[in-house]
Amino acid sequence: MKILVTGGAGFIGSAVIRHIIKNTRDEVVNLDKLTYAGNLESLAEVSDSSRYAFEQVDICNRTEVDRVLREHQPDAIMHLAAESHVDRSIDGPADFIETNIVGTYTMLEAVRQYWQALEAERSQNFRFHHISTDEVYGDLDGPENLFTEQTPYAPSSPYSASKASSDHLVRAWHRTYGLPVLVTNCSNNYGPYHFPEKLIPLIILNALEGKSLPVYGKGEQVRDWLFVEDHARALYQVVSKGTPGETYNIGGHNELQNIQVVNKICDLLEELVPDKLPGLDHYQDLITHVADRPGHDLRYAIDASKIERELGWIPMETFESGLRKTVEWYLENRNWCKKVRDGRYERKGLAQN
Ligand code: NAD
Asked: Which CATH number fits domain 2-193+226-253+295-318: 3.30.428.10, 3.40.50.300, 3.40.50.720, 3.40.640.10?
């Protein structure tokens, strides 16, 4: 297969590309605009491969998307390009509407035209895989409830509303035009190469630098955490074995309150980096509770039994093993962090998924 990955320079997209190049014989074309969140250094391990190509293109630019499809002739699209940070969507929703909704529409129209012109066998095997989030389902009410593929959409933030819109467009292009789409909705990812505005990397780096560890409200928000390499494997299973028209929820069976996550990171740092900056006794002392995010959902949790049953995927990492790998990676890759860090977020200092 030749797979076109949009957003391949981002956190999850780069994990998907590293997975495909290292573990399959497929070819990959990475289509990415390289916003603040895109970083080609995340692909350094695989970018010399003859099976990898990069195109710096905005998914909203139809002419350029058409050119890439014409020149590279992919067999499948994995669509990950998006604005992905909830806090940024609250500060300025416009980019989220443009990239997540208009950009997905532009991809769908370009891909529909390309797919309709393919000869019969290639057209039958073609797939458009849209990568989405569990945040489209909104807040879970009871502690026993889980998001299934049938849970109605109730997004709360501009980010999750823009992702919900794009999911609806993708499903409509299947129903109306027969485009062979697959949709996946995944819980919070964590792991190496995560941009340090997100909760886990920000807490690790702030703790090492003796800065405050900001936690929204009491930190009681519950999220289900999945190691990014487990997500990348799941996505490859779906694009290569999933049934067109179907949705698959992906999760890690790791429900934790944000404050528990922050405490676990502090505990690991006590073990791995016991020598702290002068005057700091415990990393936990840096925890600072800040005013809660508007519209903040209290709990997300995923029922991932469909992908486990139908495609045989299960996560390989527990939260303990994945978090240890993640903290160790950030300790060994401080240069990567320095290069990608954005001044605005360092000043603002807020951290969440
Ligand atoms: P990210 O912000 O790390 O990366 C996004 C990538 O998309 C970047 O490389 C960026 O340059 C690129 N991009 C942004 N706008 C673009 C445009 N207009 N044209 C082309 N490229 C553009 O995001 P991520 O965390 O890797 O998330 C990837 C996808 O997975 C998103 O669709 C997100 O909604 C979804 N998702 C993320 C999580 C998570 O926990 N991070 C969980 C579930 C689903």
From this structure: 3.40.50.720
